[in-house]
Design a protein that fits this description.
The protein is built from 13 helices and 5 strands. It has a 3-stranded antiparallel β-sheet with strand order 2-3-4. Helix 1 packs across helix 2 and helix 1 crosses helix 3. It has a domain of 62 residues. The termini are far apart. It is 53% helix and 10% strand. It has 274 residues and is mostly helical. The protein is elongated, with a radius of gyration of 25 Å.
Amino acid sequence: MSALELAAAQRAFARVAIALEGSDPVDSAALSARLRDDRGIPAHDRMQVYAHGYFERIHGVLRDDFPALHAALGDAAFGDLARLYLLAHPPRRFSLRFVGEQLPAFLAGPVAEFFRSRWPFAADLAALEWAIVDLFDAPDSPVLTRESLAGVAPERWGGLRFRLTRAERVLVLDWPVTELREAWAADRAAPALERRAMRVLVYRRVEEVRHRSLSALEARALELVRAGGDFASICGRLAEEIGAGAAAQAVQLLERWLSDHLLSALSAAAPTGS
């Protein structure tokens, strides 16, 4: 077999294997002509082993990346979802790390309407679980410490600007799917959900990805940090919301962000007085 013939056979093999439940009959027939029966197993049946194995490997990765979604849907429905998703979004990279990247958007789209009608929270749960997967190996950032703030002169605090680490994300969700993820993690029965908008902070602290709900107040404060607002503007926004006690609330939020390892550094433009 020449190099060109080998390349053509490899492409045909890939097309048949990736087709999952069916393949182009021309490709299948042409490939079968190049394969031989072995130990009493017809060439076509040998090919199906690879087609089945292709799906099972990716199906297993999706189960691992979306365990609470798998538990909520059940094995059969999750398998159907995986097949439909892979037909619409076959892997485009060599690594399976990104195979589930499009699942949240797919579940929110028209093709997955059947799943949304039965599990209306599915897209939100997939978004939460993908964020957990994605942030696990997000790039590292230096973590801002309390000690590094100790050298800031009091008169310069108002001008401080903070940078967030690259391992955090705020999700705006329509369903409290954190309850499903927590039930799965604790091996408890999944609770019944009622639609309720929420914001969820997903972040990595050391080597553990965590998540927690955000109050509207904290969410707006984090938006200001992300937009480059200084500490004075954060205090000012809090004062508009809660009036007296805004500065104390800002300090409490800063303490929590430091504890959660959300802050990477002070802005280069912020003098430290050191």
